[in-house]
Each structure stands twice: as C-alpha cells, then as structure tokens.
Amino acid sequence: MSKRAAETEKSPAALKNLSREQPEDNGEYPEEMGEFEDQYGDDYSSEEEIIEAGADGEDPGEDETMEDQMELDKQVYLPSRHRLQKDEILEPDSTAYHMLHRMNVKWPCLSFDVLPDELGDERRSYPHTVYMVAGTQAQRAKDNEILIMKLSGLHKERQHEDSDEEDDDDSDTEDEPILESRTIPTNSTTNRLRISPHSHTAASMAESGEVQIWDVAPYYRSFDTPGLVISPAAKKPAATLRMHKRTEGYAIDWSPHARETLGKLATGDNDGKIFVSKRKEDGSWASEGPYTGHTGSVEELQWSPSERHVMCSASSDGTVKIWDARAAKRHQLSVEVSSSDVNVASWCRSVDYLLATGADDGVWGVWDLRTFPNAAQGKTVSATAQFTFHQQPITSVEFHPTEDSVVAVACADNTITQWDMSVELDDEESRDTGGVADVPPQLMFVHHMPEVKELHWQRQAPSVVVATGGEGFKYAIPRDSIYSVFKTISA
C-alpha cells in the first residue's frame, strides 16, 4: 500500500516506493476543523442555453462549427482515460448524486473507518449523520493525531430548479452541514485504521511498527452529551502491541465473529509476517505468530464473516492465502491472483464465499473461494469476474454491506467507481454503446477524487460512501486531507 505522494503526477513506482516530499513548515496552517458545506454552487450553463445562443440571429455560416462543438460536448469524459488541460477543471453533475459533500482536515489521512452509531439501520431520510475515526500523516511525527469526527446535517443534493428567493434562503439555512471533531495525540503516522465491530474501539497500524488500541467510546459519547468530561486516561492508547518490532505494515482486521467480542485482531507487516492478537478478560493482550508463507509484504487481511478461525491475506507477492489460525501458523490454501502486487481485498459479508481483490496493475476482480482448493491440485483458478477498466493501482475495494453484487473501487487514477456484477446486457443493448464501447456494462458510476486512498460504505445508511483523498500542496501549507461523502443515483 503506497503512502500519499507529494504530487498527483507521481508515477505508480514512486507511489509504491513510499516517496513523499516535505512542504516548507512556515508555521501557517489551515483551520483544522469547522463547519463545511456543499462545495458546488447552483451556477451552471445548460445545454438549452447554448442552443438558444446559437439560434439567436448569429451568422448561419457558423452552424457547422456550432454543431461540431455540440458533438464534442456529447463525448463521455472518463477521468481514468483522459487528462485535463491546464485551463480545465472537472465539475460534477449534481443531478447524478442524491448527496455530495466534501470536507477538509488539517493533515492527510491514509486511512479511516466509520463508527457504528445508535441512530438505527437502513436509514434513508435526510439529513444524514456519520461518525468516523481517522489517523493522520503529519509533516512531523510528533504532530500526528487520531481524529474522531461527527458529520451531521448531510443534506440531499439540491437540484438546479427554479424557486423564489425566500425558498432559497430557507434552504440555505437548513442545509448547513456541521463537522465536529475530537483529537488524540500520537507520535507516528497511521498507515491503516479499523474499528471493532463489537465496540467503539479502534486499532491502528503505525509507521513505527506499533499496533495501538484506542478506546474512542468517550469521544463518541461527548458529541451528544453536553458537558461530558473526557478523562486523561482516554487520551492515551488502551494498549500498544509491539510484536512487529520496528517493521511497519498496512494489513489489519478485527474478527467479526460473535464469540470474539473482547477483541481479536490480525495484523500483517512489510516483512510478510502475520500475527493474531486477542484481548483477555483483564484487558491485557496476547499475540500468536508469526504466520509466515508470503514472500512479499502483507498488504491486506480479512477475517471470514462466518468461520471463526479462518482469515485470508493478500500480498505484494501476487497471492491470496487462506489461513486457519489454529493450524501451526501455515496457510491452508494459496492462489496467485495477480502478476503484480495485490494491494487490497474485501470479503463479502452477505455471501461468504466471495472475495474481491485489487492489484497494482489496476486490475480488480471477484473470486469464488469454493474454487481455491483446485489450486492445491495444480488446477488453474480464475476470477468469477475481472475488470481492466482502471490503469493505475487499486487503493481500496469494498463490497456493499447488503447487496452482494455491488462493489466500490478506489484507484490511483483519481476515481472511485461503483460496479454491479448482476448487470447483463441483451443483444440490442450491447449494440447501443452510447459512445463508450470499451466501458463494461457493470460499471454504474464514476466519481472523481484526487489521490483517493480509501473508501468505506456507511453500513447503516444504504449506498452512502465515504472516501479520503488529497489535493496536493498549496501555498507551502501541508496538503489537506479531503473527505467525500456521497450517494449516487445508481445506488
């Protein structure tokens, strides 16, 4: 997993080599937190306006030029396939979103996770509220933080419809999203962070090689409990695990099994070692391992959603391995899923034999784990579905929490894509390509986001996606971390 590069133009090789330029520290920083609102206003130019201008007494000799220009306007722009010119910018079509918001924080964040809340499941009414935890990548190690955030007032995207000024004023007042935050100091960049499915506990893989456990429950409660005092003890890690010594890593996952409510954690490092750590009744932790077998760094770990002791690992050696944590620290199955590094993986929660992977060559796919035993017999194992639409490293992949055919993918080409594996075109539909013949029919949506690093579905609000990315340096100030929260009309 690559760290955030200093420039969006950096090559994939530079990203993988973890290169990062340091901005000049001039003591000036952007405001750390505050209210945020939809970044896109209501001013726009419609195609209808262009047509009227072309028909309003202009030289008939310009008709052909106008028609050519209009034809160009109809071409589909794909951020992953086209480059913007210096004088061009991308503006989203708000009609393609049910909801779209963006916010900035002080430091870049390579990783975050969504906190479960008590506001109910299957939430569909607006405005939405999202709680989440993130770890920073500050310029100086001592400036790093664990961020606990509450995003509220996330309103539905307003369409560009005619309305009187009074209605507009009321809407502006009601539609102000609010960001509240709390911070915990830490002394190292957070490479990866995950929230326990059983409690408001976070685990982070640090650049220093430490695995830190954070009790974020008091911070979560403080958002909705005025006057709540957070104890000094809550501002330190609940535990620090050092089994990886000084070797950093990116792979970390909590067991979702109902019998592991105290906490069971799998972690993997750049030396290819995997450890399994369990919390005891007295609050202490015990680690088992290392589990070895990979010849490259362990980039991702995922516990089985149904088998208590089973987990899978994805590695830069191009393989996915299946492990039984009880079986002498050796993998049970191994399948080569890519000729390049396997960066990310997602084990489907609703269909427990489906696994999605994303690789450094831009290829991502879905695998049927029931076919993996064939590899042990020397047979070829192929993906159930595989896509080469992206041309840059895949940085995040995640199954929809309830729709097993839907997958969200983040890529270093500055895009987030949503896919539906259940889509199949008939012959007539296949002939009508709409000018995008090379785009798979399973591709439902493309969202542009610079340097996107990680995405997650908000499991309690169907089809809401949260993602973190970056915008580069501005005025010698450390780059902001940009979070997008959106729900598309395709979902």
TrEMBL record:
Residues 24-68, 162-178 have a biased composition (Acidic residues). One of its GO terms (cellular component) is nucleolus. Residues 87-155 form the Histone-binding protein RBBP4-like N-terminal domain. Pfam families: CAF1C_H4-bd (PF12265), WD40 (PF00400). Residues 1-10 have a biased composition (Basic and acidic residues). Residues 1-68, 153-197 are annotated as: Disordered. It comes from the Eukaryota. WD repeats lie at residues 291-333, 387-422. Keywords: Repeat, WD repeat. One of its GO terms (biological process) is ribosome biogenesis. Residues 183-197 have a biased composition (Polar residues). PROSITE patterns: WD_REPEATS_2, WD_REPEATS_REGION. PANTHER family: GLUTAMATE-RICH WD REPEAT-CONTAINING PROTEIN 1. This is WD40-repeat-containing domain protein.
